[in-house]
């Protein structure tokens, strides 16, 4: 399981956000992309998206990482 943890900070706007995700297998041969986001230090919102194969889930994860990078999120050590 590859866990990705990103943070974005803008002290002028009091913006301190995190975004984390990982791909994990389901019990029926499917795969899920689990995402959590919110303010650093607070519990976040969790969402699971299901895919028929691991490759599709990893492709969706890579696309999200690229999109978050464009918005200023930077990788941080995982919690």
TrEMBL record:
UniProt xrefs under SMART domains: WGR (SM00773)
WGR domain sequence ranges: 1-79
Protein name: Polymerase
Coiled-coil region: none
Annotated Pfam families: WGR (PF05406)
Taxonomic placement: Bacteria, Pseudomonadati, Pseudomonadota, Gammaproteobacteria, Methylococcales
InterPro entries (alphabetical): WGR_dom_sf, WGR_domain, YehF/YfeS-like_WGR
Stretch forming the signal peptide: none
């Amino acid at each position: 399981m590859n866990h990705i943890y990103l943070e974005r900070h803008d002290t002028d706007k009091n913006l301190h956000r995190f975004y984390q995700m990982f791909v994990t297998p389901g019990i029926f041969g499917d795969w899920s992309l689990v995402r959590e986001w919110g303010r650093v230090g607070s519990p976040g919102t969790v969402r699971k998206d299901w895919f028929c194969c691991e490759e599709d889930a990893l492709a969706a994860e890579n696309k999200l990482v690229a999109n978050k990078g464009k918005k200023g999120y930077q990788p941080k050590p995982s919690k």
